[in-house]
Amino acid sequence: MSTAAMPNAATPVTAGTPQPSPPNIVDKTDDEIRAIADPLWRDLVKHSNDGKYGEFVRNFSTSLALAMNQVVAGHQFANSELARNLSDDFDALGIIRRGEHVTVLYRQRSTKKPGEWLGRLVLGHEAGAVKIFGASIF
Predict the structure, then answer these.
(1) Are 57 and 48 contacting, i.e. CB atoms less than 8 angstroms apart?
(2) Which residues on adjacent β-strands are paired with residue 109?
(3) DSSP secondary-structure letter at 60?
(4) Per-residue confidence at 68, pLDDT binned at 50, 70, 90?
(5) For the chain, what percent of residues have pLDDT higher than 90?
(6) What is the DSSP string of 9-30?
(7) Which residue, among 104, 105, 101, has the nearest Cα to 126 in the 3D structure?
(8) CATH fold group of domain 25-137
(9) Which helix (H) or strand (E) holds 96?
(10) Which residues are within 8 A (CB) of 98 and not within 5 positions of it... i.e. 6 or more apart?
């Protein structure tokens, strides 16, 4: 009797197809990233101007939402002239890819203050959806 046809007990047998790797936003083209990022940035500007904290954090990753201090953010919305007067006039300056995240840089303007500010939006995937992992204006 030949043993060549018998499976080796030490060799694991797996069934089914290999699981696809989770999506990585860095694999998207600049145009695809901008198509995702620009509406998210526009929403952040709108909700910041309106002082709507709950709407502002709606697309945040779990880790960023937990790290945000609602009292401090509410104080910022109430007391920051810049945060409450962002113009919908912004320009994307570029995209930086790093690890599993992309950073989209924006030239942001104010409706009340002269000049330009640098906006930063960090995006990545969480639970199969694109989420905001960082957002700031300098």
Answers:
(1) no
(2) 116
(3) B
(4) confident
(5) 62
(6) TTS----SPPPPPPP-GGGS-H
(7) 101
(8) Nuclear Transport Factor 2; Chain: A, (3.10.450)
(9) strand 86-98
(10) 26
Cα Rg of the chain, angstroms: 22
Which of the pair, 63 or 21, is modelled with greater confidence? 63
For the chain, what are the domain ranges?
25-137
Q: Work out the number of other CB atoms within 10 angstroms of the CB of residue 108.
A: 22
- Average pLDDT in the 76-105 region? 92
Dihedral over alpha carbons 58, 88, 78, 119 (to 10 degrees): 70
**12 Cβ neighbours under 8 A, 6+ residues apart:** none
Residue 135: other Cβ atoms inside 10 A: 20
CA distances in angstroms from 71 to 1, 42, 67, 82, listed in the order given:
77, 23, 12, 18
Q: Are 84 and 77 in contact (CB under 8 A)?
A: yes
Whose tokens are 């990585």? That residue is: 24
In sequence order, what are the beta bridge partners of 86?
Answer: 110
Average pLDDT rounded to a whole number, residues 42-59: 91
Distance CA 55, CA 46 (A): 9
